[in-house]
Amino acid sequence: MKSTNLSLIAGTVALAAVTGFAALSAPGDADATGATAAARLPVERSSLLCPAPGLSELAETTYTSFTPASAGGGEAGTAELKPSVPTNADGSEGTTAKKDTKKKAADSDKPVVSLKEPGKPATADASGADAPALVGTATGKLAPGWTTQQTTTVSTGASRGLLGVSCTGPDTDFWFPAASTAKSREDYVHLTNPDDTAAVADIELYGPDGSLKSDVGEGITVPARSSVPVLISTLTSEAADDVTIHVTTRTGRVGAVVRAADGATGSDWLTASVDPTGTLVLPGIPADATSVRLVAFAPGEEDADLKLKLLGKTGAITPAGHEDLHIKSNMTAGVDLKDITRGEAGSLLLTPAQGGQATPVVAALRVVRGTGDKQEVAYIPATGPVGAQATVAGNRAKGSVLSLTAPGATGTVKVTASAGSGGGERTVKTYTVKGGTTLAVTPQVPAGLKGSYALTVETESGGPVHAARTLALPEDGIPMFTVQTLPDDGGTVEVPAAEQDLSVLDD
């Protein structure tokens, strides 16, 4: 038999770039031990899921889709978000879909928002309570770092507020501290399935005394390319102010996000905390926050003892009376930090207490601005650093604040404000964030801006930097706002080179 070369490098590269699970090295890039070093390649396919924004006829929603400009090659590709099929919490077809199944089937194949080129945002609008969840995929040049911001304004009613969320990727495991089953709250978990087969999810609830009894949170079916909202207070008879939600899937994968609503403070989206870890950073607490509540949970078999620090403009301080936090295993702990920032924007750092072990925890903040009947709420989950690159879309000429936090060593990042969705030229600025501080800046608006723009943060040097973006849109004396964190966008993946040449030799 004639010798045939069966090198698997190209196949491995393609698989890794699509899935993001593998890593790749450039041939001949070996270290002193002879092992080949890994190289990073841009992903070739990304998925995003946006929850249904409605629940109010007064809801006005704007989607902003964006992929950072890159010098990388690859095919042009596409980036589109299409409507999911509406369903009820039991997995059955939603009322609207029953009324006009054929029309919904046709509409579900029409993109709501479609991105044409890297470096320039694309926008779309939706109104009312019937706006569906969106399911989307980006390929080619539009895949690396693809992000979509969903921003909804509701002026009155129980859903009042400025609700913002960076649409999420699908996964199999999510933690949501800072939810609630209290009578004053109406918290929904939105589960969205991007795939062509049904997914099955479980929802577990944990309060201050441990697991909240529930039989109906198990085996929730999420039909193919559909979204299911689940009101968590219907999963248990126990009312608790502070609840941690754990979403897992038995089969398939979903996007999960929580819409939390309170009659006094309005509503916003709560995205998942970073995976359980011993040290957590919660960036971007506004300077004028009137109430900050920390909710944390230790999912393992060990209790957690944490030290709390507020990283402000000039350094770290320990909140008086809240120097430490003890979290019992599998019990949710909440602590009211009141107006902890006192006029100076900051970020919260949670570390193992002196001499304590690094017990994995998850955490989130419930942040309120305003007083009396003029209050507004937003949520900040613990998040990872910006890493190589992180992006957030939907910024406006006014009302955008970028918070940069260096919990350890001083770090330097490059911040790029993209061209506007309707025109304008991008701008670039570098910021150095001193270790142990938070730097809150008003982003440099693109020259000649028309429409909205995106911010891309890239690590240049030094220690890790965590980031969050605040959007503010005051209305009728209410300081409406929303906060989105900026973890690494996963736009590139490491793919290992083949250790040896696999070939078929002559017999």
Query: What is the alpha-carbon Rg in Å?
Result: 23 Å
Alpha plus pi helix count: 3
Structural class: mainly beta
Termini separation? 6 Å
Residue windows where pLDDT falls under 50 for at least 5 positions: 1-30, 93-103, 500-507
Main sheet characteristics? 5 strands, mixed
Q: Which overall shape is indicated by the principal axes computed on the Cα atoms?
A: globular
Secondary structure: helix percent: under 10%
Tell me the fraction of residues in β-strands, as a range.
Answer: over 45%
Largest sheet, spatial ordering of strands: 6-17-13-19-20
Mean pLDDT: 88
| Number of extended strands | 41
Q: How would you describe the oligomerization state of the chains in this entry?
A: single chain
Question: Care to give the gist of this entry?
Answer:
This protein has 507 residues and is mainly β.
Explain what this protein looks like in three dimensions.
- It contains three helices and 41 strands.
- By secondary structure, it is mainly beta.
- The strands form eleven sheets. It has a five-stranded mixed β-sheet with strand order 6-17-13-19-20.
Describe the protein's topology:
Elements: E1 4-5, H1 9-19, E2 39-42, E3 45-50, E4 60-66, E5 79-83, E6 85-86, H2 95-99, H3 101-107, E7 113-115, E8 122-127, E9 134-139, E10 147-154, E11 161-166, E12 173-179, E13 188-192, E14 199-207, E15 210-211, E16 220-222, E17 226-231, E18 243-251, E19 255-262, E20 266-270, E21 280-285, E22 289-297, E23 304-311, E24 316-317, E25 324-327, E26 332-338, E27 346-352, E28 362-369, E29 376-381, E30 390-395, E31 400-406, E32 411-417, E33 423-425, E34 427-433, E35 437-441, E36 447-450, E37 453-462, E38 466-472, E39 481-485, E40 492-495, E41 503-504
Parallel strand pairs: 6-17
Antiparallel strand pairs: 1-41, 2-40, 3-9, 4-8, 4-10, 5-7, 5-9, 10-11, 12-18, 13-17, 13-19, 14-15, 14-16, 14-18, 19-20, 21-27, 22-26, 22-28, 23-24, 23-25, 23-27, 28-29, 30-37, 31-35, 31-38, 32-34, 32-37, 33-36, 38-39
